[in-house]
Task: inverse folding
C-alpha cells in the first residue's frame, strides 16, 4: 500500500499547432507518425492543458514555472531575472536584474550630482544591431563595484545583454535608462522607494562608467574605422528582483532534475535547486541527439524521483513556419519518449505535453491549449487512443492548467502530503 | 415561476477508486450493483469533481468545508480546531486549539521564570501508544484555569488528545511543545507576537501542571506497576485558531442540516450552526443502518432546505484495502440514496458524490477526481447513464471543484441571490 513511484514530465517545446493549409488542414502532430505518444494516450488519461490559463500566450519561462508548480502570476515579477538566467548568468534571490542594450551614444555624457544625464544623446538604441564583439564589450564592464554593489554583465544575442546587481538594500522599483526612442539622452533611472533609489543611483553611475569603459574600446575603434556606429553605452531596462522561490525539493519533498536544452529553462531549474546535467549531443536544434536526452532522463531517474525534460526542436519548426521540420521534430519527440518508456522503471508515472503552441501559420507562441497525456499504474485509462490536439478532447483530464501538473503527478506518485485530516 | 426547491448532497466517504487488480481492473463502483445511483446519473447532469483542486489530496475536513462552500485554503489554518471538533469538543471562534500527545517524561520538570523547561526529558513521545485510561488522564487535566484562560482537554484514540484554550487576547502563532523526538526535554512554547506570547505563557504553565497532575495519577501508578512507562505529561503541537466562519444559514440564506456519522464532520456542521441530529443505528462502520440515515435525511428535509449526508463505510473498505467490503459499501450507499429518492419531496435537487478517493490499492486518500451527478427538475440531463468514475467523463458538469457544489445547487434550488443587476 501507499507505494511511491517516480515521475517525469516530457515537454515538446511549442509542439501544439493549428490546422495548417500546407498539411491539408491537419496539424503537424496529426500528420506525424508517433506510436510512442499514442501508446501513452491509449494507456493513460488525456486532456487539454492551458499552460498558464485559457487563451493566455505563455513564454517558455512562465510556462515552465507553472508546470514546475510555481504560479507565474505570483513569482514572475519582471523578465530581468529570467533573461539573465537564460543566458547562463548566476542569479541569486534578491539580485536586481535588467535587460540591456548596447547602444550608440553621441556627445560627452555627464551625470549631475542630483542624478540627471546631459551632454549626449543616443543615436541608435541597438548600435545597428551589432553582431560581433559584444562578448569583449560585456567583459569590459563586467564585475565593477559601485558603493557596496557588484554589477555583472553578460552579452546575449545581437545588441542584447543582461545586468545583475548584487548587494545589500537594493529595490527593484526603478525606471528604465533605455529611453525607448532615438535622439534622446539616456533617461536617468529613478527609484520609487528608498531601496530602489539606491538601485537607481548605482544604476546611473554604472551607465556612466559603461560609456567611459566602452567609448575608446578596441571593438568600437574598429567599428568607427569601418564606418559603423560604436556600441559605447549599456542601457538597462525592465528591472526586476530575483524572486524568493522555495526550492523544488523543499516544495514537493522529492529531488528533481531538469534535462533541457535551452539556457532559460536550465537557469530556472538551477534557480530552483534542481539537478541540471550537461547532455553531450543536445544542441537545442533540429540536429539534436534526442536519444542522448532520453538516456540522461533515465540516468537522472536513478537518483531523482522527478525529471522534467524539454525538447526544443518542435518550437523551431513553428517559429520558422516549416511544417515538415515540425513533423520531423514531433517524430524526434516520439523517439525520445519511446526510449524513456523502454528504459525507465515500469511503474513510472509519465506525462507528455507541450509548454505552449507555436503554430506554423503564426510563427510565434499562442495561447491555444496543448494536449496532455499521463500514463502509469495509478491512472484510470480513458477512451482516447491517439495523442493530438483534437484527439485528446473528451479525455478524463478534461482541461487542466500547467500549474495543476505537479499536484496531479505527485498524487499519482504517492508522494504528496494530505491537506487536512 | 421562481419556485424554491429543497436540496441535498449525499456523500459516500472515500468512494472513488482506481482500477483494482483483484477486480480485473475495474473499480468497486464499477463492480457494484447501484441502480439508484445510476438512475440519478441517467436523469441528471454528471461530471468529475476535484474536492479541493486537481490532484490535491483532500482530508475529510478540508473536503467537507469546500463542499459546504467554505474555501479550505482560506479557512483551514491548522488541524488543531478540526481535531478538537472531530472528537466532539465544543469549539468557539477564537479558541486556540492544539493536537496533543500523552507522553512519558523522566526526571523532575522545572519551568524557569523566563519560560524554559529543564530537569527532565521525554523518553517516549507516545507513552508506548497507551490504549487504556486516557479518559481518566484527560479528566485530570481538563478545565484548569491559568490566568484568565480555561483549558479544556479531551482524549482521542491511543496516545492522542486535544486541548482547547479559551480566553481573551490569545494568539495562535506559537511553537510546538512536543519536541518531535525522544530524549529531549519538552520545548517551551514561544509566541511570535504579543497575543501569541500570552498563549505560550499559558501553554507552558499548562504543560507543567499536566505533569504535576498526572505523575502520581492512579492510571500511571498502575502502568509503572505493570512495567510500562507512565503517560505523565501532555505535549501540545499544531496550534491553530478556530476560524471566523460565517454560519451556513447566513451565508446561503437557508437552514441546513448534517446527517453524518463521524465526529469530525459533525463538529464542522455544528461549528457552522447547522442541525446535526443523533441517528440511532448510525455506527460509522460497515454495520451501520443506512436506512436510518436515509430516514434522518428525509426527516431533516421537513424543516431544512438543505441537507448534507456522509456515509462513512466506503472509506473503510479503501483504508482496509478490502475490495469486497467497498463494493458492499457502495451498494449500501445505493440503498440509502434509493430511500431518499422514494421518500424526499419529488422536486428535490439531489447531488451524489464522494469527498475524496480512497483507492483500494493505495489504502489512503488520494487526489483523484470523484464522480458527481445532480438530479432535479431544473437540470438539463446529459447522455451519461451510469454513475462510475469513468462513465461520468463527458458529462455536462465536466470537471468542477467541491467549492462549486453549493453555488450549483442553490442555483438549481432557486434560492441564490443574483450577483449584479
Result:
Amino acid at each position: 500500500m501507499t507505494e511511491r513511484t517516480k515521475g517525469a514530465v516530457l515537454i515538446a517545446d511549442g509542439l501544439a499547432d493549428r490546422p495548417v493549409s500546407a498539411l491539408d488542414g491537419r496539424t503537424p502532430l496529426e500528420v506525424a507518425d508517433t506510436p510512442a505518444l499514442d501508446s501513452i494516450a491509449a494507456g493513460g488519461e488525456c486532456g487539454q492543458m492551458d499552460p498558464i490559463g485559457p487563451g493566455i500566450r505563455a513564454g517558455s519561462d512562465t510556462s515552465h514555472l507553472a508546470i514546475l508548480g510555481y504560479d507565474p502570476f505570483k513569482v514572475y515579477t519582471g523578465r530581468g531575472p529570467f533573461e539573465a538566467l537564460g543566458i547562463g548568468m548566476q542569479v541569486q534571490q534578491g539580485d536586481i536584474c535588467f535587460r540591456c542594450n548596447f547602444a550608440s551614444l553621441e556627445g560627452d555624457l555627464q551625470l549631475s550630482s542630483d542624478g540627471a544625464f546631459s551632454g549626449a544623446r543616443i543615436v541608435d538604441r541597438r548600435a545597428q544591431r551589432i553582431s560581433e564583439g559584444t562578448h569583449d564589450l560585456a567583459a569590459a564592464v563586467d564585475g565593477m563595484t559601485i558603493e557596496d554593489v557588484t554589477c555583472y554583465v553578460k552579452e546575449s544575442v545581437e545588441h542584447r545583454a543582461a545586468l545583475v546587481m548584487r548587494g545589500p538594500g537594493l529595490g527593484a522599483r526603478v525606471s528604465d535608462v533605455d529611453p525607448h526612442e532615438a535622439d534622446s539622452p539616456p533617461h536617468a533611472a529613478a527609484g520609487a522607494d528608498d531601496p530602489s533609489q539606491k538601485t537607481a543611483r548605482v544604476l546611473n553611475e554604472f551607465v556612466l562608467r559603461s560609456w567611459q569603459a566602452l567609448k575608446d574600446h578596441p571593438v568600437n575603434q574598429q567599428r568607427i574605422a569601418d564606418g559603423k556606429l560604436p556600441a559605447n553605452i549599456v542601457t538597462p531596462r525592465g528591472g526586476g528582483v530575483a524572486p524568493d522561490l522555495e526550492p523544488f525539493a523543499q516544495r514537493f519533498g522529492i529531488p528533481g532534475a531538469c534535462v533541457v536544452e535551452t539556457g532559460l529553462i536550465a537557469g530556472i531549474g538551477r534557480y530552483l535547486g534542481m539537478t541540471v546535467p550537461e547532455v553531450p549531443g543536445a544542441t537545442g536544434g533540429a540536429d539534436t541527439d534526442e536519444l542522448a536526452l532520453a538516456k540522461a532522463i533515465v540516468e537522472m531517474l536513478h537518483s531523482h524521483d522527478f525529471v522534467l525534460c524539454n525538447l526544443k526542436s518542435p518550437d523551431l519548426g513553428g517559429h520558422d513556419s516549416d511544417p515538415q521540420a515540425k513533423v520531423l521534430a514531433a517524430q524526434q519527440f516520439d523517439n525520445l519518449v519511446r526510449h524513456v518508456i523502454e528504459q525507465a522503471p515500469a511503474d513510472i508515472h509519465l506525462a507528455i505535453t507541450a509548454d505552449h503552441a507555436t503554430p506554423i501559420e503564426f510563427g510565434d507562441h499562442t495561447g491555444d491549449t496543448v494536449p496532455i497525456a499521463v500514463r502509469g499504474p495509478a491512472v484510470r485509462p480513458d477512451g482516447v487512443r491517439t495523442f493530438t490536439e483534437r484527439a485528446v478532447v473528451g479525455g478524463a483530464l478534461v482541461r487542466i492548467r500547467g500549474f495543476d501538473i505537479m499536484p496531479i503527478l505527485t498524487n499519482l506518485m504517492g508522494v504528496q502530503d494530505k491537506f487536512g485530516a
Residues 7-76+244-413 of chain B form a domain with the Alkaline Phosphatase, subunit A fold (CATH 3.40.720.10). DSSP finds 14 helices and 13 strands in chain B. The mean pLDDT of chain B is 95.
